[in-house]
Amino acid sequence: MHKLCMIGTGYVGLVSGVCFADLGNKVICVDQDKNKIDKLRKGISPIYEPGLDEILKKNIRDDRIEFTSNLKEAVKKSDIIFLCVGTPNKKNSLDVNLSFVFKAVKEVIKNINSKKIIVTKSTVPVGTGDQIEKLVKKKKAYIISNPEFLREGEAIRDFIYPDRVVVGSNEVKSKKILRNLYSPLISKGAKYVSTNRRAAELIKYASNAFLATKITFINEIANLCEKTGIDVEDISIGIGLDNRIGSRFLRAGPAYGGSCFPKDTKAIVSTADKFKSNLSVIKSVIKSNQNRSDLLLKRLHSIIKKFNNKNVSFLGVTFKANTDDMRDSSSLKIIPYLSKKGAKIKYYDPTGSKKEFNNLKNVEYANSIQNCISGSDIIIIHTEWNDFKSINFRKLSKNKKLIIYDMRNIFSPTKIEKLGIKYFGIGR
Ligand code: NAD
Asked: Using CA positions, which residue lies closest to atom 17 of ligand 1?
């Protein structure tokens, strides 16, 4: 049993904290946001993540996890301290804003009462661990990099059954302790990658940059498919079956978004620039992805012609299914654009209404799929929730000129067209 402190109870800190508790450790989760702590103490998760509520409640009941805003006490009572705070980009910059990390580090250092292990789980640029180490005087703590690879929407499963656990440390003692902490996952098949600290920091950015590249690659191939009368789904299958390529992250769709890929691709470029190394591929990926929303808006123009007074139903607004995370979702570009052009938009998301759209003209939240679709001229499917896959469009809409723009290719074009509905997908 290890005594752990998680600083930051967001998607990473909360999920890791709850899962570490479930593995039998004693966990104290700290957040500066008192509202989050109040909710968590009552067993209510402030984020939507499938399966999280159940294991949160179970571990509170079994007294393995507690929540506090008192960082001082939490640090004193713990042996291993995980930094799980946000690392967004600085405003209008490729650089990472490390202020949350260093604020937390300084508070931790102030309150160290015995030798600790400080683990950076936040995604941080190469050399951040070295900077933290310089702040820790008299060798009162080991500094480790242990990047997190969980995906929102699959976070619990990804944490418990990760492909790999990466631990970067420049000495042996803390490595052994971390290996021991992760041993229940390693014994279930997770590969354990032990590296030096800088390599672990870069592994995280290189992984995300590679995945973003894969998505952008298939999105550009989808553009070519649209011009050549080919279905990109056939291409994804045809190339994905090559083991060297692999089929995952080869689904064409809107611009990639979320809390990681947009910021991490920029951050790795910023790091490379500092070391005078040119990451030209990743620079192209960033540019292509930024252009993608404009490209889809152009496509929408060619489908709808005139937006004014058109009834648009928007299904799913988060950056992907099974999460409530709106960060960098392409809906944040598409919905305001449609509103500006005079369309009347009703949107539905299984995780509820979003404050981001509160002040937009003619944008309202519909509390069910049915209410969202009724009276619609065009239905835009923006995320691939299972809830949308079995919609009976003909039952819910009597509009004879109904159009569907399926941005996730979840429907078969022929089946939809058989219903007398005009269908548009991505790259088909
Ligand atoms: P988040 O914004 O959801 O959560 C961060 C939390 O930290 C917030 O609740 C905030 O209140 C808290 N916080 C900030 N400063 C604090 C302080 N000094 N003391 C106490 N609490 C503090 O962030 P997230 O999505 O969980 O991401 C955290 C890190 O993990 C980032 O570096 C991110 O890149 C990385 N990461 C995220 C994901 C993901 O899917 N979200 C996956 C892998 C890695």
From this structure: 104
